[in-house]
Amino acid sequence: MTGFAALLRRDLRLSLRQGIDLLAVVLFFLAAGILFPFALGPEPELLGRIAAGIVMTMAALASLLSLDRLFAADFEDGSLDGLVLSPLALELVALAKVLAHWLSTGLPLLLAAPVLGLLLNLPADLYPILLLTLLAVTLALSLLGGLGAGLTLGARRGGILLAFIVLPLFVPVLILGMGAVTAVALGESPMAALELLLALDLGLLAVGPWGIAAALRQLLR
Amino acid sequence: MHRFANPGRFQRLAARLLPWLKGLTALAFLAGLYLALLASPPDYQQGETVRIMYVHVPAAWMALFAYLLLGLASASALVWRHPLADVAAAALSPVGAAFTFIALVTGALWGKPMWGTYWVWDARLTSFLLLFFLYLGHMALLGAFDDRSRGQRSAAVLALVGLINLPIIKFSVDWWNTLHQPASVARFDGPSIDPSMLWPLFTMAAAFHLYLLAAVMERMRTQLLAARLRTQRQARFETWQGEPGA
Question: How far is B171 from chain A (nearest CA, A)?
Answer without folding.
Answer: 15
